[in-house]
Design brief:
Number of helices: 6
Strand order of the largest sheet: 1-2
Strand content: 5-15%
Order of helices and strands: HEEHHHHH
Helix content: 40-55%
Radius of gyration: 14 Å
Number of strands: 2
Structural class: mainly alpha
Length: 115
């Protein structure tokens, strides 16, 4: 009989299925306002000004946690994500962080320290 996967394993599998194949697929805006669809608006906030660091960080946290693959590539920007990652990684769940860092070497803590 196969062992039942743990809750963290199930979450990691769910997050891994949403990932783009490469970070270069993240083609979201780098500036201006972003209006998230209602299925991502669990915080009550739907409009984010990417030029304001706190709002940008909130937007990215929501999209990483709740977004499907299409949301990730539409709302996240590769350069912003990479630049924000050292702080952002401390604000998201361990499951999300592990999945993204295992999938993309440039987000791994060792790569960030070397940059």
């Amino acid at each position: 009989m196969a062992a039942t996967p743990s809750v963290p394993e199930l979450r990691r599998t769910r997050f891994a299925r949403r990932l783009p194949a490469e970070l270069s697929e993240l083609a979201g805006p780098a500036h201006g306002h972003v209006d998230l669809p209602l299925h991502l608006a669990w915080s009550g906030l739907t409009r984010f000004d990417l030029d304001q660091p706190r709002l940008r960080m909130s937007c990215y946290r929501i999209v990483l946690a709740e977004g499907q693959r299409d949301d990730l590539v539409h709302y996240l920007n590769q350069e912003l994500l990479t630049a924000m990652w050292p702080v952002l990684r401390t604000l998201i769940s361990r499951d999300i962080r592990d999945v993204w860092e295992n999938a993309f070497n440039e987000l791994a803590p060792d790569a960030q320290a070397a940059a």
